[in-house]
Amino acid sequence: MSILDSLKENLEHIKNNQQYRTIQPISNHAKKFIELNDIKCLNLSSNNYLGLADNEEIKKGSIEAIKQYGCSSGASRVVSGNFEIYDKLEQTLAKFKHTQKALVLNSGYVANLTLIQSLSKNATIFCDKLNHASIIDGIILSKAKFYRYAHCDMEMLEKLLKKETANKIIVTDTIFSMDGDGAPLKEIVRLAKLYDAFVIVDEAHASGIFGEGRGYAFCEHVENDIHCHMGTFSKAFGSFGAYIASSELVIDYLINNARGFIFSTALPPSVIGANLSSLNYIMQNPLVGKKLLSIADELRLFLKSLGLDVGNSISQIIPVILKTNELTLKAQKILLEKGIFVGAIRPPTVPYNTSRLRISLRADIDKNELEFIKDAFRYLGNVI
Ligand SMILES: *Cc1c(COP(=O)(O)O)cnc(C)c1O
C-alpha cells in the first residue's frame, strides 16, 4: 500500500468511528457569544476562561508592545531575540509563583515537550494516565523509562516509586483538561519526599483561576514542595505561550539544554505584551477565578440533579459523560439548536466509552446566562 492509500484508509476508519474532525468557520471567536455557521450561540467550548482574550487592557498591552518592539523577535532568545518586557514578564511571574526564576516557552505543548525531554536523561518518569498529550510526547521524546499510573491512583504510584532507586520524576496535570478534576497534590508531594522524587506540575487549566490565580498547587498549599511549575498563557490568560517557574538551577539548565527553547524563534512582542498585561490583570483581580468556580459549583449541582454524570469535576471544566460517540454528537447538536456550543470530546482524546460533552465556563457569565444554560440542559436531559 502506498503512503497516500494508507492516509485514505486512516481517514475512512476515523469517519466510520464518528471521530472525524473538521475545523469550522467561527465569527467573534473571542466573545462570549460566537457565530458558528451563522448561528449565534453561547460559547462553552473555549479555554478563554476569564474572557481576557477580548479584554481592552490586554489588547492595549499587545498593541503598545508592537509599537515599541515591532512584530517579530527576530531570533531565538539565546541569540538576539530577547527584549526588555520578556525579562519583565519572567521576573514578575517568578515573584507571583514564589520561585527563584521563570522562563517563557513558545506554547504549552512545546514547554512540556522540551522540559521533560531535557530533564529526563537517565530518569524514570511516573505519569498520571490522564496527563495531557504534550507530557506523553515529551516522555516519548526523552526515551526515558516511564510508568503510567492509573488516574490519581496513589497506591499504584507508591508501588511504582518503591521499585525504582534513583532519578525519579513525578509529572501530573493539576486540573485535568477533559475531566476538570484535581490531582491529589498533597499525597503526591508526600510520596515525592518519601521516595526522593522531583515533582513537575502542569497548571494549564488552573493558572489564573485557583489559588488567587497562582495555580492549584497554591490552593492546596504545596507550592514549596513542587520543583517545577509549568503553566500556559493560552487559557485563562487569554493570550499565547507558556512558562516554567522553578529554581535558578533548573531554569539555567533549561536555557542551556532545552531544545524547544534554544532552537526556536522567541515569541513576538505582541504576545509578550499581552501576557504581561494579562498577568497584571490577574494579580490585580485575584478573586475573579473564585467567582468562576462558584458559577461552576452551581451548574455542577444542577446537572447532577438532572441525573447527568459530571465525573469528579471540581473546576470550571465540567464533563457530561454520555459514553458513546453517537449520543455525544446528538447531544451537542441539540444544545446547539438551543443556542449553546459545547465540545463533543471523543476517543482518542478520552478513553474509549467515555465520550462526553465538555463544558468550559467563563467568569463573565451572568445570572440570566446561567439560567439559559440550565434550561438548555434541562431540555437535553428530557430528550436523550
Ligand atoms: C492546553 C494544554 C497544554 C498545551 O498548551 P498550549 O499552550 O495550548 O500549547 C498543555 N498541558 C495541558 C494540561 C493543557 O490543557
What can you tell me about this protein's structure?
With 384 residues, this protein is of the alpha/beta class. It is built from 14 helices and 14 strands. The chain has helices at residues 3-16, 56-69, 84-96, 108-119, 133-142, 154-163, 185-194, 216-219, 248-257, 259-262, 269-284, 288-305, 325-337, 367-383, and strands at residues 26-27, 33-36, 39-43, 101-105, 124-128, 145-149, 168-173, 197-202, 228-232, 242-246, 317-323, 340-341, 343-345, 355-360. The chain has a seven-stranded mixed sheet, with helices on both faces. A four-stranded mixed sheet has the order 1-2-3-12, covered by helices on one side. Strands 11-14-13 form a three-stranded antiparallel sheet, covered by helices on one side. Helix 5 links the parallel strand 5 and strand 6 (145-149). It binds pyridoxal-5'-phosphate (PLP). Pyridoxal-5'-phosphate (PLP) is lined by residues 107-109, 112, 132, 134, 173, 177, 202, 204-205, 232, 234, 242.
Write down the overall mean pLDDT. 96
Strand content: 15-25%
Give a quick account of the main beta sheet: strands, pairing sense, barrel closure.
7 strands, mixed
Shape: globular
Bound molecules: pyridoxal-5'-phosphate
Structural class: alpha/beta
Q: What's the tally of helices?
A: 14
> How far apart are the first and last residues' alpha carbons, in Å?
43 Å
Oligomerization category of the chains in this entry: single chain
Helix/strand order, N-terminal first: HEEEHHEHEHEHEHEHEEHHHHEHEEEH
Low-confidence stretches: none
- Radius of gyration, in Å, reads 21 Å
As a percent range, the share of helical residues equals 40-55%
Main sheet: strand order: 4-10-9-8-7-5-6
Number of E-type strands: 14
